[in-house]
Amino acid sequence: MHKYSLFKSLTAALLLFLAPFAATAQDVGEVIAQPAPININSADAQTIAKALIGVGMVRAKEIVAYREAFGLFQSLEELMEVQGIGAATLDKNKHLISLSTD
């Protein structure tokens, strides 16, 4: 038997053996948990800084200060009123933010 044929046979056998253990895309989606959105109307600065992409502690404190000065955020776009929060930062974080008032 030629080396290449042996390699193909062994590879095929290995694939057949491992097939039952292979994860489907759906399985992977179930395993990789998406982070729960944080409530921007109640979260403290430390929670905001840890949860949002591109938002450090200084910016997170400004978000909390804005909320305390002007009241709860009524829309995600209102976050752009906070100094240093622009459209790019908001776009990166929309899926991570909740405005729930519960």
Question: Could you characterize what this model shows?
Answer:
There is one protein chain. The protein has 102 residues and is mainly alpha-helical. It has a domain at 38-98: Photosystem II 12 kDa extrinsic protein (DNA polymerase, domain 1, Orthogonal Bundle). Helix content is 50%, strand content 4%. The chain has helices at 3-18, 25-31, 45-51, 57-70, 87-93, and strands spanning 38-39, 97-98. A two-stranded parallel sheet has the order 1-2. α3 packs across α4 (57-70). It is rod-shaped and about 75 Å long. The termini are far apart. The model has no long low-confidence stretch (mean pLDDT 85).
Keywords for this structure?
DNA polymerase, domain 1; rod-shaped; two-stranded parallel ribbon
> What value does the average pLDDT take?
85
Low-confidence stretches: none
| Main beta sheet | 2 strands, parallel
- What topology, given as strand order, has the largest sheet? 1-2
Multimeric state: single chain
Portion of residues in beta strands equals: under 5%
CATH architecture title of the domain at 38-98: Orthogonal Bundle
Rg of Cα set: 24 Å
CATH fold category name of the domain at 38-98: DNA polymerase, domain 1
Order of helices and strands: HHEHHHE
**Count of helices?**
5
Total number of strands: 2
CA-CA gap between termini: 71 Å
Assign the structural class, choosing from mainly alpha, mainly beta, alpha/beta, alpha+beta, or little secondary structure. mainly alpha
